[in-house]
Design a protein that fits this description.
The protein is an all-alpha fold. The protein contains four helices and no strands. About 20% of the residues are buried.
Amino acid sequence: YALSLLAVIYIFISTFILTITEQGVRFEALLFEEVSAFATVGLSMGITANLSFWGKIVIIVSMFIGRIGPLTLTLSFMNQQNKEKVYYTKSDVLIG
């Protein structure tokens, strides 16, 4: 659930940014481009070349985050205070 929720939240935020930066482009086309970029599918409706500089940056970042994965990216930014979670037991083994 966490992975799906992070993906949906990111897609909605980046689509919202695209609707702000790209005036006059249909919402469905922007949403399609964003989902395709996030899923790294390679499909397009032909509007990617006509996007503004910031629109292209949003698409590029979406491709990068989609390739890495939202859960991996989120976990990499988390603060890990105690990195050593494995403790080995010490005991004397009697042989013979």
